[in-house]
Amino acid sequence: GGRRVSTSGGVTIVPKLVVSGAKLKCSEGMSPGSLTVLPANGTSADDISVSAKLRLGDQRAWQPDWALLIQATLPSGSARVSADRVLPGLNVVYGWDLPVQWLSVAGSTQGNAVVDSGGCRRFELTQSVSVGYALTPTLGAFTEWYASFPTGAHRGDRPSPHHADAGFTWRPAPRIQLDVRVGAGLNQSAD
pLDDT, tens digit, for every residue of 12-25? Predict the structure, then answer.
């Protein structure tokens, strides 16, 4: 989630706001690619995404800190980019704080309903791995790799898109975090 502004060079900048409680976290944002700047045609807003996060367990030895996100994209965007339907999904997130106090590793495995370029609804699996760096008690940095693995007839022989990004996190209060990231595609499929 988060607001994404795409530039003509394929670099993205994504701010995101998350407000959380002890066992449930809700976040509001726009789906990736949410604010698209089109060089010749102006700006289009993507559909809004909503999610609820249910904490499932705390880190114990090799067992990660993990949670389940129940999410959906709501048809609220500009006519050019909206899916025009609710697209549900599930996301399992997991992570480990490493013995080095300033380093953590996390991952995400999610399955979502998506609409392909032909207008057909299909299933897409997405995997990510990130490394987090605690710079101060309220400021952090991260690097991330993620890839989407679409299914369905319109996939063709096109390879799955892979991306990398890096960014900063800031916690102005214990239950509020702001993220800013810059990312780029790693292969031709990652438009």
Answer: 334 444 444 434 33
